[in-house]
Amino acid sequence: MRRKTSMLSKTRFVSQVFFSLLFCAGILMAGNDYWPLPEDFFFRLDPLLAVICMPAAGTLLCNFLLSASVVALTVFAGRFFCGWICPLGACIDFFEWITRGFKRPEILNYRIKHFCTIKYGILVFVLAAAGFSFQFLYFFDPIIIMTRFTGMLLLPFKKEILHQSPFVVKHAFEFIVFVFFILMLSFLARRFWCRALCPLGALFGILGTFSRFEFNQKKCNSCQVCQKICKTGAIADPLKNLEQTQECIRCFDCLNVCPQNARRFGYCSDFTRWPKSSQDTVNLSRRTFIGWGASGMAAAVIFAPKAVAMPGKKYLLRPPHAPEEEAFLDLCLRCQACVNVCPTNALQPVFFQSGLYGLWTPALAPSVGACKIDCNACAKVCPTGAIGKFTHLTKYHLKIGTAVLNKNRCLPWAENKPCGKCLQHCPTGAIGFTREDEMEKPERIDFLLCVGCGICQYVCNRQTLGPPALIITAKGRNQPSGVAPVTIKTFLENKQKKIR
Amino acid sequence: MIHKKLKTRISLFVLFFICTGLIFAFRINAREPEVYSAHHIKAAIAQPVEIEADFEDEEADLSDPALDKKLANATHQGELIHVAHFTPPVFFSERAKRSIEKRFWIRFSPFGFILFIAAITTPQSRRKKQRAMSLKKSFNLGKTAIVIIGIVSILSFLIALWPTDICHALQYSSIKNAVTDYLGKESKIYQTHIIITPDSKALFKKELGWTPPKSRYKVYYTKSDGGQPYAYVYVLSDKLNACGGLHKYCVKISAEGKIEGISIIELTCDRSYCINSKAFLAQFKRFDLTNARVKAKNYDAISGATQSTDLTRDVVLRALMLHRILNEQKAGA
């Protein structure tokens, strides 16, 4: 059978490639002043984030107003986002293309309808949890998943090529394995993730049922080729014009394969027909709905920071200008955008150090890198405001934490060996010292001047083989610091002079 | 009733998921706050008298559990914090960090995995395999492919994740063995200390641009039949910041103050392993402090381990300088 490619199909391919490249470029160029788009552009397109984060955070997140336009387009043209824009959808399509020789078990086709309800269940689950101020989107939202994956996959190469500091993130492989697991699911059925598990797809599916753009066929001979080629199983019976609009991702593969050239896609002006067919409804029973909703509430209780599983550790260092721990956990999407963009790798995703709910949230790890005084990249890329907006000069108005000094580990004190690295590097002069035997020995830390940037721990960690003498703790987090803006300004000016 | 094929595939994915979970579980354990022992070398407390070598304090465990426990339980008090210690919740040791940095090749493994899947699922490959396996009619390619993919992916991720926190350290010899190899197993080995005075420090600073961190250094030696020392062995170590590892050397110096041999006891950075070659170490033989070639860094370095070879040269010079100070102290006494 000779296949022709319709213009719509070609356009969709171009769109997928364009948005995939845009997405990758956005990850690679994040934090760069020359990048014209907002760093969180794709997050702004995601209405599920807006729906979930607003109740979870209890605030109106203006960033997500752009997603309203996507919602409007979906209501108008159907679930096009999954087939035209979604980076995870493009990734799955690419994976299915390279594994096209593998004969996928079509046995699932008669069962996939049951699987399809799972995504609606997951949507109910995350919504119910969000109602209790907990968001679990980091497991399910395709934009978040792809941001983590793309960053962990591409940024090591970028930093290696540009000779920047190496990309060191311990959890990188976990994020990559997570996406590979999703890709492996497509061996069960094409676009298994989109059909069965993706809550964003479910949301677009529900909205897409209102779409007035439809397929119709006038000379159909019921060869069912379109039904077989459909990657989401949206065509139930082409002869009877039975389609599941909520499943159709507008890939237009069916237009390419129709031997009669009978299939057409166009606008339907008949507003009296809704739902358009018996197939065109979300088949989630009341019992299942309640079950998923109750599961979401139960998960919210289990994952609560102070509840059953694992209470979080309050002394975890968070990025600058992050709100209090519970608010931070609610706002943080675990997208790792800040981790990706951190130039010194100071921000690292944690595992269970902050409890179950704190999984993959970013924390400052001064032993890996220090928070740079002239950097506000994490604030620029955070899509939800979990890291508050700040500039270079306002960055240290609030403390990240405070350093503590252990003289038993300090080289001048313990070994009578000259060191003084912490004194040289501290940008605010917070470390007081005494002079003995022609050596400057760190004596104490000024609570107001120490902002917890971690440079002292970082340099100390490089001097000592064991744990460093200076360790940053979360004491005083978010309290106003005593550092005058002029101090930072002078420090930056001196730094510039040194560079010149 | 669940379809047979579906059942197989679901069970394979469950297996994949469980294995991934096990990897995570392993990594949780690996990420628990580590208990570090104090690696700082304590100041020697023995008197600078000639005694028989015991090799005890060099090999002793330098950790101080009581201090670690005390510090772990300590809390900070007041606005001005003096001494407090708790294990940081997110802590990478310098070695663990460099271990991740060094394994850049792992970054390619996801792409390799994708290529592997693409290769085994291409139609051409399938047809070839089907032709080859045509005699075995029961051969189920789809099932086999999934099994292979599952096993290979699990293995590759296990291999990739396993050595995350392992620091590549190599100990070639113990100090005792290294010293006895140089001074003779049958010989009686003595030890004494070289006291580093402020004048000695100044001399080191002037000549080598390095200040000795310790106030006294141990030297092993043996005596001839006439009772005169004829060979000295210095054990010197230093931490190389470039690779975050410990380098420990054993340097043999003759009574005339010439290098007779240098051997490496321990390296804690796999980039440096290549310096433990006989050809490289042998070039320092017969060198003394007056040798301009050593001072001018005019020696055969090893590319890829430049800083380690520089450190080796520095250790040679330090040992020679210590020997000079030892002779001066003897002369003074």
Number of domains of chain A: 2
Strand order of the largest sheet of chain A: 1-4
Number of strands of chain A: 10
**Number of individual domains of chain B:** 2
Largest sheet of chain B: 7 strands, antiparallel
Helix content of chain B: 40-55%
**Global outline of chain A:** elongated
Q: Which runs of chain B of at least 5 residues are low in confidence (pLDDT < 50)?
A: 26-49, 57-86, 135-140, 161-168
SSE ordering of chain B: HEHHHHHHEHEHEEEEHHH
By secondary-structure content and strand pairing, the structural class of chain B works out as alpha+beta
Low-confidence stretches of chain A: 307-312
Shape of chain B: elongated
Q: Strand share of the residues of chain A? A: 5-15%
Describe the largest sheet of chain A. 2 strands, antiparallel
Describe the overall structure.
The complex is a heterodimer of chains A (500) and B (333). By secondary structure, chain A is mainly α. Chain A folds into two domains: 7-267, no CATH class; 372-499, Alpha-Beta Plaits (2-Layer Sandwich). Helix content of chain A is 44%, strand content 8%. In chain A, helix 1 packs across helix 9, helix 3 (47-57) runs parallel beside helix 7 and helix 7 crosses helix 12 (199-208). The longest helix of chain A has 23 residues, at 7-29. Chain A starts with 6 loop residues before the first helix and ends with a helix. With 333 residues, chain B is of the alpha+beta class. Chain B has two domains: 4-28 and 104-161, no CATH class; 170-332, Sufe protein. Chain: A. In chain B, 45% of the residues lie in helices and 15% in strands. Chain B is built from twelve helices and seven strands. Chain B has a seven-stranded antiparallel beta sheet with strand order 1-3-4-5-6-7-2, with helices on both faces. In chain B, helix 1 packs parallel to helix 7 and helix 5 runs antiparallel to helix 7. In chain B, 28% of the residues are buried. At the A-B interface, helix 9, helix 10, strand 7, helix 21 and strand 10 of A face helix 1, helix 4, helix 5, helix 6 and helix 7 of B.
